[in-house]
Amino acid sequence: MRGNEMRGSLLRVCFGAIILMLSCTLARGQEPTAQPATMLAQADAVPDVRALADAIRSLQVQVQTLNSQVNELRTDEQRWHAEARELRSELELTRAQLASHPDALSYAESSTSPQKFLPPSANSNVNLSNPAETTQTASATTLEQRLAELEDNQDLLDAKINEQSQTKVESGSKYRVRLSGIVLLNLFDTRGPVDNADFPQLAVPPTFGNSSNAFAATIRQSQIGVEVFGPEIAGARTSANVKFDFAGGFADLPNGVSMGVVRLRTGTIRMDWANTSIIAGQDSLFFAPLIPTSLASIATPPLAYAGNLWSWTPQVRIEHRKDLSKGSSLLFQAGILDSLTGDIPVMQGYRAPTAGEQSGQPAYAGRIAWTHHLFERNFTAGVGAYYGRQNWEFGRDVDGWAATADVSLPLGRFFTVTGELYRGRAVGGLAGGVGQDILLSGAVTDATTTIRGLDSIGGWTQLKFKPTTKFEVNAALGVDNPFASELRRFPDTQYYYGYSISRNLSPFINFIYQVRSDVLFSAEFKRIQTYTLDSNFNAANQFGISIGYIF
Q1: What is the DSSP string of 26-59?
Q2: Read out DSSP for 96-159?
Q3: Is residue 35 part of a domain?
Q4: At a CB cut-off of 8 Å and minimum separation 6, what does 82 contact?
Q5: Is residue 507 part of a domain?
Q6: Average pLDDT, whole number, for the chain?
Q7: Do 450 and 489 contact (CB within 8 A), yes or no?
Q8: Which of 94, 204, 301, 498 lies at 20 to 30 Å from 512 by C-alpha?
Q9: Does any domain span residue 376?
C-alpha cells in the first residue's frame, strides 16, 4: 500500500513537468516572425529556460530517489511477510505442543493471536520527506515488541510443558514415564471390636485380644503408581499403569504391624482412540464404577461389604462413547472378567483354580451410561449387569449374577449426590452379600451336599458438599442385606466369619481440606453395625485423622 502512494506522488510530479514544457512550446509557436527587438527579448529569456531545465533535472533526481524508496518498501514488505510466516509457524508449533499437554491449555487461550504479527497496515502515517526511514523504524519497533511477547509466552509454555512432562523419571525405553502416589498416615481411635483395626468393614463379637478400645496409627495405606505413555498404534494412544500399596499383610517379626507387605492393586494397558478404548489388565469393576470419598479407607474401598461392590479383577473390556448432542453422550462398556468367587488360596506359592475358574468360562459384564451437562458439571446415570458361573464339582453348578444401577447427580453449585444399588446372587467374591457367596446343606466335599447361591441386595449413597475447590464434606450410608430366610434354611453353611451375617450397616461423615495442591488433611467419624442371624448386632465406632502427601 505504501508503494502505491509513492507511485501516485511520482506520477503527479511528472505530469506537472510535462504540462509546463508544453505550455512553453505553445507560447513560442504562437509568436510572429522574429524582429530584432524580439530576438533581444528571446535572448533575455534564455536564463529562464536554463532554470526550467535545472528544475526538470532536479525532478528526475527526486523521481529516482522515490523509485529507490519504493523498491526498498517492496523489499521491506516481502521481509515482513516472511517474518509473519515464521511467527505463524512458531505459534502453530506452540499450539501443537499444547495439544499434547491438556493441562497447559489455559495458557493457549492467553497466547498472542496470529493477526498481531502481520506487517503495519497501509493506513499508517508515513513521513513523505523520508517514508522509508519512518516505516522501517516503526515496523522494527513493533516487531521487536511482538517478538519479545512471543518469547515470554514461549518461555512460560515451555516451563509448564516441562513440568507436565515429568521427565525426571528415567525409563528403559524412550517413552515418558510418570511416578505418582500418596504417602498417607492414618491415626484412629476405635471403640468396639472390628475385623480390621486399620480400615474396619465389620463389627465383630468381642474376643480376647480384640478389646473395645484401641488407639493406633498406620502408614500401610500409602500407594505408589507408575504410568508410561507409549507410541501411537493404529491411530490409538497407548499407555499402561500399575499401582501398589502396603496392605498385603504383616511381617512375621516383632512390631510387624508397622511393616506392611507390598500388594498389587491394579495394572492396566490401554489403547485410546477418539471415541473407543480397549483396556486389558487388572482393574476395578467397570459395571459398578463409583466409590465413596474417604481418606480413612483406601486400601479397601469405603463401604465395602456394606453395599459397595468391588474387586480388583483381571479383565479385558471395550468402551465406546457416542455424542448425542453438545452436552449429552452415551457410554457403552462390555468385557470379560476372571470369575473370582472370594476363595482363599490353598497355600502360599501355589495357585488352584477358583470355583468360578473351574467353570471353564470367564465372567461377563456390561454397562450403559448416559451423561448430560447439568449445573456446569456432569449428571451421569448408568445400569450394568454381571454373570459368572461357578463349578463346585460333582455336577454342582451355581449361576452368579448381579444387576447394578449408579447415579452421580449435581444439585446446584455446591452439592452432589452419588450412589449405587445392586441386586444379585452368589456375588460374595465381589463383596456382595457381606462376602457370603453360597449356601451349603453339608460339607462341600460331600457329593450329596446341596449348594446354591445366596441372594442379596444392597447399595450406598453419598452427599458431597464442596463450597470451594479445597474443602469438602462427605456424608454417606451403606447397607448390605443377604436374604435371612435363605440363611435360616441352610444352617450348616460354613462361612469365613464362622457365623451367618444377615445385615451390615455403616454410615460415615468426613471433611477433607486440601492445604496445598499436594497436601491433604481429613477427619472422619464412622459407625459400623453388623447383624448376626437371629441375634443382636455388634457395633463399633471409629474416629480417624488422615494426613496425605500426593506426589
Answers
A1: HHHHTS-SPPHHHHHHHHHHHHHHHHHHHHHHHH
A2: HHHHT-GGGHHHHHTSPPGGGGSPPPTTS---TTSHHHHHHHHHHHHHHHHHHHHHHHHHHHHH
A3: no
A4: none
A5: yes
A6: 82
A7: no
A8: 204
A9: yes
Q: What is the DSSP letter of 344?
A: P
Domain shared by 193 and 156, yes or no: no
Q: For helices 2-29 and 36-99, give the axis angle rounded to 10 degrees.
A: 170
Say how far apart CA 18 and CA 20 lie, in whole Å. Answer: 5
Rounded Cα distance, 458 and 424, in Å: 9
DSSP letter for each residue of 58-95: HHHHHHHHHHHHHHHHHHHHHHHHHHHHHHHHHHHHHH
User: Please, how many CA atoms are within 13 Å of residue 149, restricted to the half-sphere of its CB?
Assistant: 15
Domain boundary among 146, 165, 184: 165
Using DSSP, state whether 431 is helix, strand or coil. coil
406 pLDDT above the threshold of 80: yes
Q: Which residues of 151-190 are buried (b: 16+ CB within 10 A; e: fewer)?
A: eebbeebeebbeeeeeeeeeeeeeebbbeebbebebebeb
Final residue before a domain boundary, out of 105, 140, 165: 165
Q: How far apart are CA 408 and CA 369, in angstroms?
A: 11
Specify whether 216 is located in the same domain as 140. no
DSSP string, 464-492: EEEEETTEEEEEEEEEEEE-HHHHHH-TT
Residue 85 pLDDT: 77
Q: Which domain holds residue 387?
A: 176-550
- CB contact at 8 A, 119 and 81: yes
pLDDT at 22 over 70: no
With beta carbons less than 8 A apart as the criterion, state whether 225 and 179 touch: yes
Tell me how far apart the alpha carbons of residues 381 and 122 are, in angstroms, rounded to a whole number.
59
Residue 233's CB is within 10 A of a number of other CB atoms, namely 9
Q: Residue 241: inside a domain, yes or no?
A: yes
* CB 436, CB 501: distance < 8 Å: yes
**pLDDT at position 260 over 50:** yes
DSSP 19: H
> Is it the case that residue 146 has pLDDT exceeding 60?
yes
**What is the tens place of the pLDDT at every residue in 364-383?**
999 999 999 998 899 999 99
Q: How far apart are CA 494 and CA 441, in angstroms?
A: 9
**Helix (H) / strand (E) containing 14:** helix 2-29
d(CA 444, CA 26): 133
DSSP-based three-state secondary structure for 434: helix
Are the C-beta atoms of residues 31 and 24 closer than 8 Å to each other?
no
Answer positive or negative: Cα dihedral of 427, 433, 434, 439: negative
Q: Which helix (H) or strand (E) holds 161?
A: helix 131-165
